[in-house]
Amino acid sequence: MSPLLDIRGLSKRHPPRGFGRGAGVLALDDISLTVEAGSIHGLVGESGSGKSTLARIVMGFDRPDSGTVLLGGVDVQSASGEALTKVRRQMQMVFQDPGGSLDPRQRIWKTVAEPMGLLEPRLARLQRREKVDALLASVGLQPADGDRFPHEFSGGQRQRIAIARALSTNASLIIADEPTSALDLIVQAQVLNLLMDLQETRGLAILFISHDLAVVAALADTVSILHRGRIVETGRTGEVFARPQSAVTAALLEQDAVSLASTDQLKEKIHYPR
Amino acid sequence: MSAAVPSMPGTRRFALLRHGRLLTGAILTGALVAVALLSLLWTPEVPTRLRILAKLKPPLSEGLLGTDQLGRDILSLLMVGTANSLSIAVAAVVLGAATGTLIGIVAAMRRGALDALLMRMMDAVFAFPPILSAMMLSALLGSGRLNATVAIGLFTVPVFARLARADTKRILRRDYILAARGAGKNAARIAVDHVLPNIAGAILVQVTIQLGLAILTESGLGFLGLSISPPAPSLGRMLADAQTYLTLAPWMALAPGITIALIVAGFNLLGDGLRDRLDVRRDVSA
Questions:
Q1: Where are the alpha helices (DSSP H) in B183-247?
Q2: CA of A92, closest CA in chain B: separation in Å?
Q3: What is the pLDDT of residues B22-46, one digit of tens each?
């Protein structure tokens, strides 16, 4: 079976700063990775390793210099019209900072309903609202919350709202770019819990981008380690973390030994269904 | 008891002062607008009626604020003049704000060559003082209400274009813009749904402040005879008429002078107050 998301040979060079001398920074260097339907793939790397650049290209917000992104066999970069709508419907993103990813002047229900235009452009207001209420309930919020504004919610609640928005098109793939790094530990566990529940019940695939090995170890089925724009190692999470093949992975694990020890604590907070 | 919270009384007085600014501005502007509206229905005298026998009478001896060199009732002139000045200022600023905001948003969202072109055009417009552009326009169109409105409006366009462009650029960096793109919205929808609501507060504050400036400019144009045509009264021309009789009849200058100052102060206070009220940072970053 072909993978849901298939990234092939992706390269991206950021333009040089200042007066255009030099070749710029190679943000992504020949990246290839796949995400199977219904599975969680962790993408790990320290800051500056190109994680967010990759997310932006996969979502089609930026163009790569070379390489292709296939979602369900459709090329994301060259898709247009009906095909693009279908791609966007299938793939939604959860951003790092829920403070910045929700429009402060828009009521929550409108934010959550925003991607529904991809599904049924002429859906009546009342029907949209009904769908939003169901989505809010599925992420643990009240239907009445839909009439409130983002600043009335806590960070964890805001991230739940962002997740509800990402779910509103019944997407089969969620790109989550450090969705919990702006949250404190307990809230972090709650949001991760929610993501895992949704993955189970809806058969979602998640490309989970993080710098936190503990979180990835607890969550992901497979993992890729990104270092300076290159993937240095990829494989099943347990195997990679138990027997790292690359020096970079080993160094990351060593660095994060303290944090990995807390994986067990995190796993206790996450109910960890498998 | 109060020793536990020593800063409380001061803080409260300060808060009162801040809210007081909005309130004072609103009352002042409201009162002057009310007077202007009243002048459409009623004035103590017909403002253009000449009574040479009762010329240059001091306040209270003939009418509430006296008469001018042609015996016209100054209070009536003042009321109609305020209405004329306000209507020109409001029309000019609304025109300038709408055009400027549109230009600013388009420049910020399209970027590149169009951005550069539009903003250099704004620089060029901004380089001419409004009095000068009004004089050039009157050479083309002749003086009058329309001429003054266009000249003042033209001058406010770059102010709003720059403000809208800077704020739009700030908004476009937010993740909710990416989310909207991911939701399939095109640039026009994003501008209407996300950009405009998020810059509206700053635009409104600027509208209020520009209204004060527009009144001042309109008076300057009226003083030079470049605004609304006689015999329709205007605050600026009342000042110009008063100049000759400054030592003989100082009330002729004081009445329009104080009125202009009150309008400008009212709009500035209102703008400052609104800024304090609206600039609460609602987009809380976690």
A1: 187-190, 196-223, 235-244
A2: 7
A3: 899 999 999 999 999 998 888 888 8
- What mean pLDDT is predicted for residues A45-69? 90
Helix or strand (DSSP H, E) at A30:
strand A25-35
Question: Could you tell me if residue B93 is inside a domain?
Answer: yes
B175–A104 CB contact, under 8 Å:
no
| Residue B152, CA atoms < 13 Å, CB-side half-sphere | 34
pLDDT in tens, A181-219: 888 888 888 899 999 999 999 999 999 999 888 889 889
Q: Is A274 a member of any domain?
A: no
Q: Which residues of A touch B178 (CB under 8 A)?
A: 56, 59, 61, 93, 95, 101
Structural domain harbouring A202: 5-269
Cα B47 versus chain centre, distance: 25
- Is A175 in contact with A207 (CB distance < 8 Å)? yes
Q: Chain B: give the shortest CA distance to residue A249, in Å.
A: 30
In a domain, B113, yes or no: yes
Q: What is the DSSP letter of B248?
A: T
Question: The complex's ipTM?
Answer: 0.88
Which stretch of DSSP H or E encloses residue A32? Answer: strand A25-35
User: What strand order describes the sheet that includes A40-44?
Assistant: A91-94, A173-177, A205-210, A40-44, A222-227, A230-236
- Identify residues of B whose CB sits under 8 angstroms from chain A CBs: 174-176, 178-185, 193-194, 197-198, 282-286
Q: Is residue B1, in this structure, part of any structural domain at all?
A: no
Domain count within chain B = 1
